[in-house]
Amino acid sequence: MTSSLSSPGLDLEQLRQRLRSKSDRPRRQAITQLLSLGEPGIEVLKDYLQDCRDRGFDWVAGTIFRELLALQDEAIALYLAEAFPFGLLYLPSEKGIDYQPIQDALIEGDWQEADRLTTVKLCELAGTAAKTRKWLYYTEVLNFPRLDLETIDKLWRVYSEDKFGFSVQRELWLSVDRVWEQLWPRIGWKQGNIWTRYPGAFTWSVEAPRGHLPLTNQLRGARVMAALLEHPAFSEPQP
């Protein structure tokens, strides 16, 4: 791996600080610039991942993790496999649900599979009946453990550059005063009077509108989604 330290305007310490900026744009730019520096920049990115072990993993860490994997460098892949064998996030569940398959799909950038698995796991969380029918009643959502919804939401936010997740959708919903017909086009679920058709018309990448994923019972109306967005996991401060 070659170094490009002579590139004008690129200083390792400045870029290290920009990774911790309060604004998203300079943080994204810093990741790109550090990657362009080769090995010295990679070391700064690895240091950021290690620092997150104590303070918690955020979307910057998730983006770094995915970008480093995308380099397809054998040494980097080995480092990540040894340091983070299951990915960045510990996945607690009050009901003993295994959310690792969602993490694996998100790391790989398989957004459609991650979305499908999210529905599967929500149905599993709801119980045997929902698991069999493969969709949810809004009343089942009301009984979801806060911990599990927070786990799923964090997965989506960390690996999507903070663009996707239930809490993101709630933020956008509140910004339009809970008016669904204003939310749908904003998150790319509807254009005019035409619903976005599943799966081909959805955007399965981070280039999608903010809040585009995950799909929450999109074809079954708003009651399930409302129950999720009003759930204490997202509507009340964390204890």
From TrEMBL:
Residues covered by the GUN4-like domain: 93-232
CDD domains per the UniProt record, alphabetical: GUN4 (cd16383)
Pfam families: GUN4, GUN4_N
GO molecular function: tetrapyrrole binding
GO cellular component: outer membrane-bounded periplasmic space
Record domain GUN4 N-terminal ARM-like repeat: where: 4-85
Protein name as catalogued: GUN4-like domain-containing protein
Protein's organism: Synechococcus elongatus (strain ATCC 33912 / PCC 7942 / FACHB-805)
